[in-house]
Amino acid sequence: MDYARRNAEGLQISSLIHQGERDLRFSLDYLSGSERESAYSRGIAQALRLSIKDKPSPLPAWAYLGYYRIGRLLLNEKPENLPFARQLIHDICISIDRFSANQELVAFGDPTIASKYVWAAVIDLFQEGGDFVQDLESPDPENLEHWRQTVIKAKRWIGNADPELHVLMNQLQSLIIAAKPGPQSRVRHESFGGATCFFFRGGTLLNASNRISTAEMVEQLVHEYAHAELFVLGQDEPLCLNHDDDRHKVLIRSDPRPMNGIIHSLYVVSRVAELLGHIIDKATAIEQEEFPDTNELTSILRRQFKLGESSLGTIRRHARLTQTGNDVVDAATHRLLVASNAV
Fold it and tell me: DSSP assignment, residue 209?
């Protein structure tokens, strides 16, 4: 992909990120001033609105979580839910105030980051998709420190190879949470790799149960970032018109996936492939003590091609794409084509 096209895409994504933040602020302004808000939720939206009033971009993921919970409250309108909702939004506002975009990695359940109610709300949000684990807990201290150092190193690799992507990742992945499946999940043999969702913009969950290499960390970070980027690109229009019950098998998952998820799979592997291609091309420019194992990178890159080929074939056969979906698929296909020059 030529520099001019990449630069234009980067500018578009940044513009859409700011648009989403403006939309969030506008919605909270509306709720804070409406009769419905004042009569029912009694200042909850106003509290969240004030907590982000002077916050610069990127807004913390906690802000989107709070907005989501207010929306659920207004849809249900059960008076018995109000006391807990007030407490939750109060705690979320504290997390917003404590937020620092300079944190490389935080542990799930850390009480200095969020209260137990907020952490529980995070799990509840991710479970809305229907296939997330039952519970989460903090990784072992040794693994947590390993992950913290590996995230720092992976980000250096990304910044050296693709400065523009690094800037965008700082906007859409400003809160990285290390976790592992909790006791209930382990009994049920449930696990996960990483997780990102629409109403936790800026936040990513990573499974830090085991240690991984820097190359694998690069793959995970960019994979989850690309999901967030695609949520932004599709924030005003769906990617496809296929019903969620219309499911198909693709290589990236063992279970049949809805078409929206298959488009996501194509997009994320293309983002990973493009970045890995850049790292391989520029390996000699990276500091000698951090020289990447290009054999490992090439192996991961080839895996991305196989995953992308599977998803793209299914999309071409079955997808009813919108204009946004067409643009996304075209961009992903182009990225895979360009990255193929690295192997």
Answer: S
